[in-house]
Specification:
The protein is mostly helical. It contains 12 helices and 4 strands; from the N terminus they run H-E-H-H-H-H-H-H-H-H-H-H-H-E-E-E. 68% of the residues lie in helices and 3% in strands.
């Protein structure tokens, strides 16, 4: 069979599949949705999980009073966790390390990768502030020994120290280390470690459920035409195109 006829055959199969798709009307779809029973208590727990994990302590406290939903951790620890996160985001890494140790010394003692990344961020901040000699001394005394024990640490250290070889760090191959996104990445890692130490999920459940919704819709698209949610911010159902 020639390539032309193979393509023609495949196109015919695709058209047949499209023609055989089941069409579900808005009325049918909304009836199915109404048949799904979701407890308000479960929805409230989902909202509280998001507020606690993301660190919205004031909103969590207000939601607790309004809904009667109790958080699974002490809300006071959220304020402490957010103080650590903010310190890293502002470049105050030494302060962040001190706050983490005050919160729970075992977090850094049992997580060498996190501790290295915090020390790496300290080095980045020294370079950012033009403290070259201090940066070299810090790298040699604090980070080099850890690099000798771990190859990936050594590679990250070499990338960071490479910043010193360029006069215009904004245009160097590793200039992204000085981006705010690097601070945010480190802060996120610290935040996740603190949550884990408190026996709490490091990621909120709500975004995962939204990703699952998108995946389910993509799977269903292959078999049916139905009212789908295209804009998650409004959750508005849009009629199927037939």
């Amino acid at each position: 069979m020639s390539l032309f006829w193979i393509v023609v055959h495949q196109l015919a199969e695709i058209e047949a599949m499209a023609a055989s798709k089941k069409v579900i009307t808005r009325e049918e779809w909304e009836k199915k949705l109404k048949d799904v029973k979701i407890r308000k208590e479960d929805m409230n727990k989902l909202v509280m999980n998001f507020l606690v994990t993301e660190g919205y302590v004031d909103a969590a406290e207000k939601f607790r009073k309004e809904s009667g939903t109790e958080p699974d951790i002490d809300l006071a620890t959220i304020t402490e966790r957010m103080a650590v996160k903010k310190a890293v985001q502002c470049g105050n890494v030494e302060d962040a390390i001190e706050k983490v140790n005050d919160l729970n010394p075992e977090i850094l003692d049992t997580n060498p990768q996190l501790f290295f990344h915090l020390q790496q961020q300290r080095l980045i901040e020294l370079i950012r502030n033009g403290k070259v000699e201090e940066a070299l001394e810090f790298a040699q005394e604090e980070l080099a020994p850890r690099g000798e024990e771990n190859q990936s640490f050594l590679e990250e250290l070499e990338r960071t120290v490479a910043l010193l070889a360029f006069e215009d760090v904004n245009n160097c191959p590793v200039g992204e280390l000085l981006d705010i996104s690097q601070r945010l990445k480190t802060a996120s890692e610290v935040n996740a470690a603190i949550l884990t130490s408190q026996s709490h999920e490091k990621d909120p459940k709500l975004p995962s459920l939204l990703k699952m919704l998108l995946w389910a819709q993509n799977q269903l698209d292959e078999k049916a035409a139905y009212p789908r949610i295209n804009d998650l911010s409004t959750a508005k159902l849009e009629d199927p195109t037939v």
